[in-house]
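Reviewer 2 asked us to include a model.

Predict the structure of this chain.
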Amino acid sequence: MYYGMIAVLISAIFLSMSYKKPVEIEQKQNKPNVVIIFMDDMGYGDPECYGGGPYHTPQINSLAAQGMRFTNFYDAQAVCSASRSALLTGCYPTRIGMSGALDHSSKIAMNPDEETIAEILKPQGYKTAIVGKWHLGCKPAFMPLQQGFDEFFGLPYSNDMWPVGYDGKPWKDTSFWRAHYPPLPLYDGEKVVKILKTLDDQAELTATYTEKAVKFIHENKDHPFFLYLAHAMVHVPIGASAKFKGKSGAGLFGDVMEEVDWSVGEVMKALKENGLTDNTIVMFSSDNGPWLTFGNHAGSAGGLREGKGTHWDGGLKVPCIISWPGKIKPGVVCNNLVTTMDILPTLADICKAKLPAKKIDGVNVKDLLTGKLGANPRDEFIYYYDKNNLKAIRKGDWKLVFPCISQTYRKPGATGRDGFPGTYGTDTVRLALYNLFRDPGEERDLKEQYPEVVQQLTSIADKYRNEIGDGLTHTVGTEVRPAAKVN
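Predicted model (structure tokens):
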């Protein structure tokens, strides 16, 4: 009887061990890796699969062929810091006190009390890294390692925030504000490992970031990870490494596009080499539209009106591709309205993570990704710019633009050349109604023909004004949270 009990006990131990491994495998399969490749100032019309060229982007094209390409994907604002805060927190920047493009002297930063994608994924066992541009606060208390990231390699803010002129030489005119920027630091963790001093230093960023991203994938292949690859390009000053410079036949901008396309291919190659392709969500997008004042060193809005720094669709509507083999059907084009704010709640659902404790504005678009018939999780979007000015609202195909002052690239002299900017113009914008399906360039005002639509969208806008404010109507929002104050 004694030996019989021992045999039963040993059998039970082996039986429990035999079931342990499948449970671990199932958990791994239920937690896909996440890679977000976020470009800087890449316009809606820049990738080849969105009509770009005459350069070529075969790797981005391939990603679109194996996943879903979006035609109505929006950033929350048409400027760097505000846009990035929305991606990482799922909130309209105005809700969390963010605006503009923060530099070394900014008196605000993204509040550490806000929960980022990295912070909601870490409790689920994810390793987290940002490679590239942060731009949400450059003081130690507000850097990536304090916002849920295990690793950081990159710049604290934009690559043009340095004391170097458009010709690549140090500023001599000390009366110009850019001359007073500090040296541009490249960080590894909390340590500065290099100072970028020349345009040649800038030209190495894409390759360096790609190398670091690939290394992170190789080192973390055995557990779920979140990689946020936030490229410096195609933000000016643009630059391509020797391997790509002069090779596209489409000028320096074409060279830069072909190098960032190569970078996408290297990331996908690393996933394939480690057997991770089928268990990884890859998103490719941009933080806002093209900075058109830089002329041939800027990209294309693809026929949309205006670009970066405006409330017109050329400033906020950007390319977006999401791949998830086995879950997203290959070669699908999605025309539904989706925003960067929707990424956090969607990943929270897919990765079994908890949503942030505080209110967010993103909606879960997993049903869109997986092809559920009739899914349309978002039907409204509001266009903020400046500090918190509500300049337009979209519902369905309708966009109502409110009276305001806007930056414009349409005035003579607004476009520069070869790395030198033009001079911005300003427009006095009047109330106007556009149908974005029939008029994506926002040229034909239909407010007189559809007064009922104007009334409907105005009422919806008032709801948002009351909730998160509007500088144009001097409305203070009742559900806003402050950014962090920087001493």
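Residues 281 and 324 are 5 Å apart (CA to CA). Residues 1-28 have pLDDT under 50 and may be disordered. We have added this to the supplementary material.
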